[in-house]
Design brief:
By secondary structure, the protein is an alpha/beta fold. Helices cover 44% and strands 16% of the residues. The two termini are 17 Å apart.
Length: 211
């Protein structure tokens, strides 16, 4: 079995480290009810199909006719920050132990299209804050994943980073950023021609080595 050399790991969140879709549905429903919009409950299938997209794009699909999209987004972000630390999600098998083990040998980062505090909320909820060197989200910077990946690469002088994600959009941004990708095949999507395939998260240490 061939192994991939890397000096650092950058992780996607949703569909890679955890499944929090049911909790996100609750946050969306709460925000929709709060703003008086007339639509039924947001379903798991709706959100799973949109995972990995910036929140602005998800708003356009879930509530396309909402007036004042910027205000709706602010409410959504505020409700997520308040509710998600309580609601949490389901870590995929092996995530906590594997992240803790990897952090002893590699610098770990996170890049996601989530809300401004989404990554910090996740790390605190999972008890993994101390394992990560840094993180960037679309909600924080307003930039796409490719830009945020390159920012971390340049900021920390990463020579051989590897991104771990679960959707084709993750693969596309990695190509633009010039970073290889490991596909979390247990997640929400598919990837064409990934550099590494992970059947479970716990497979990751056996697929990589430090150069």
């Amino acid at each position: 079995m061939s192994r991939h050399a890397c000096d650092s790991l950058i992780f996607d969140m949703d569909g890679t480290l955890w499944d929090a879709v049911d909790s996100y549905c609750h946050v969306w429903d709460y925000t929709i009810n709060e703003t008086g919009l007339s639509r039924g409950p947001v379903t798991r299938d709706e959100l799973v199909g949109l995972m990995g997209q910036p929140l602005e794009r998800i708003v356009e699909v879930i509530v396309p006719d909402v007036e004042g999209k910027a205000d709706f987004l602010r409410r959504l972000d505020a409700n997520e920050d308040r509710l998600m630390p309580q609601l949490g999600g389901r870590l995929f098998p092996g995530v906590k132990e594997t992240i803790e083990a990897l952090s002893r040998d590699y610098r770990l980062f996170m890049v996601s299209n989530c809300s401004p505090n989404g990554l910090h909320n996740f790390m605190e909820w999972a008890g993994l804050t101390d394992c990560f060197t840094d993180s960037l989200s679309h909600g924080e910077t307003g930039c796409g994943k490719d830009v945020n990946i390159r920012r971390l690469v340049d900021r920390y002088g990463l020579k051989q980073p590897l991104y771990v994600g679960d959707t084709q959009s993750d693969a596309d941004v990695c190509r633009r950023a010039g970073v290889p990708i490991a596909w979390a095949s247990y997640g929400f999507g598919r990837i064409e021609r990934p550099d590494i395939v992970l059947d479970t998260f716990a497979d990751l240490p056996s697929k990589i080595y430090k150069p």
